[in-house]
Amino acid sequence: MDACNALIVDDEADIRELIEMTLLPLGVSCLSVENLGEARLLLKRQPFSFCITDLRLPDGSGLELVAHIQKHHPSLPVAVITAHGNVESAVEALKLGAFDFVPKPFELAVLRNMVATALRLNRGSEGRPGDNRPVLLGKSGIMAEVRALIAKLARSQAPILIHGESGTGKELAARLIHLSGPRADKPFVPVNCGAIPEHLMESEFFGYKKGSFTGAAQDKGGLFQAAQGGTLFLDEVAELPVQMQVKLLRAIQERAVRPVGAQVEVATDVRLLSATHKNLAALVQEGMFRQDLFYRLNVIQMRLPSLCEHPEDIPDLAEAILDRLSQESGGAHPRLAPTALAVLRTYPFPGNIRELENILERAFTLCEGQVIQAEDLLLPVVENRLRSSIPVPETSGGEPAMEPLISPTDSEPKTVPYPSAPVVNDLEGYLESLEKAAIMRALEASRYNKTAAAEKLGISFRALRYRLKKLGLD
């Protein structure tokens, strides 16, 4: 192991000595100074593996040292010691680029965990042979910026709020932040906050002791314990009920949780990432989300763009999705016909990348041969210039049921309803109802012989089987 040395900046000799004694068992030698000026001189003279600075120094603020290190030694992790409860200063330090912060009076275990995590930054934690790491695809400038931000955020322990529409890949971004940082060899625990019943939330997050309630036959750790040393990802964090928000805030502040039925708290060491498609700031104003929790979660905000903001990435995304589908099925890799790709480029994708995956999975099953045609996509929006090549549903009178939703002169898609169409939530739902009706008529006409029904519908047996399962008719 390479020799590690830390720069300790604090005007209290006993604090400096305590930190040195704590880091010595980790194989870290320390050089200690008591003010900013001496710290800057040492940083010029030699490299360091890590730096810990008090917030209040005789000749300035520790925040000045954080800014200095970010400018002149950006690869050097620096942590700030803050007075207990001084949340504003801690958040400011993280925004300036501090790796982490330690509240006074600090637990020695918390200090050791923090330093051990920071030292892993420079020990090849960002990539190991054999990693099957997911990739954030896209050659557009906006996606290049996202990847660069992920690489930067991975070097910090600051809480990050990932904002983006549904289907933009928020969990993937969180996972990449985890895998690119010093906690990569520890657990990544994702949890959908909207999927946990409110009465189970406390026990799910913090665990419980045997006998604490009916059915608690043995001790059980919660999500914080499962993510120990790693990352806890709170997806759809806006769905947390207010009472749970209070308890989560305490767990973040104290870096400890109390299992249901326990008398003492259990120390935790997790990095917290959260995500939402909602406007948390607006929810704070409406009293639906606690301002103090929002302040702690939103230290750094990362926004993921919707797919319509980088349509130039659709070909690469589609190719990767089809490659995965062919590998999973063991079949040949189909290609997109030019007309199909043109339709995808003009579709607004309200469901973003997740919707693109669903569309291509359906087309992968429906297509005949090795080429996915535009009609295999079954999109509710088609481009006017492809009107002749894409079938349009007809009314009982034989006339086209709807006009194309995009014309060459339109700057925005327009929706034109089917004549006499029933009231439905969306066009996709209405098209699905038409599809169900057509399939049922074919099945009834063929006395439920699926092979004969597929012939009547003009599709393959495999395509019919897929549609039956997808529509819940199997």
Find the structural class using helix and strand composition.
alpha/beta
Number of beta-strand segments: 16
Reported CATH architecture of the largest domain: 3-Layer(aba) Sandwich
Q: How would you sum up the major sheet? A: 5 strands, parallel
* Poorly predicted ranges: 125-130, 381-425
Percent range of helical residues: 40-55%
CATH-wise, what's the superfamily of the largest domain? P-loop containing nucleotide triphosphate hydrolases
CATH secondary-structure class of the largest domain:
Alpha Beta
CATH domain topology of the largest domain: Rossmann fold
* Order of adjacent strands in the largest pleated sheet: 2-1-3-6-7
Label this structure with key terms.
Helicase, Ruva Protein, domain 3; about 475 residues; Rossmann fold; alpha/beta
Overview of the molecule:
The N and C termini lie far apart (60 Å). The strands form five sheets. The protein has a five-stranded parallel beta sheet, with helices on both faces. It has 474 residues and is of the alpha/beta class. 40% of the residues lie in helices and 14% in strands. The protein contains 18 helices and 16 strands. The protein has helices spanning 13-23, 36-45, 62-72, 87-96, 108-119, 141-153, 170-179, 201-206, 223-226, 242-254, 280-285, 291-297, 314-329, 338-346, 352-366, 427-445, 450-457, 461-470; strands at 4-9, 28-33, 50-54, 56-57, 60-61, 78-83, 100-104, 160-163, 188-192, 231-235, 256-257, 266-267, 271-276, 300-303, 335-336, 371-372. It folds into four domains: 4-122, Rossmann fold (3-Layer(aba) Sandwich); 141-305, P-loop containing nucleotide triphosphate hydrolases (Rossmann fold), CATH 3.40.50; 307-417, Helicase, Ruva Protein, domain 3 (Orthogonal Bundle), CATH 1.10.8.60; 422-474, Arc Repressor Mutant, subunit A (Orthogonal Bundle). The model is unreliable at 125-130 and 381-425 (pLDDT under 50). The radius of gyration is 28 Å and the shape is elongated. Helix 1 links the parallel strand 1 (4-9) and strand 2 (28-33).
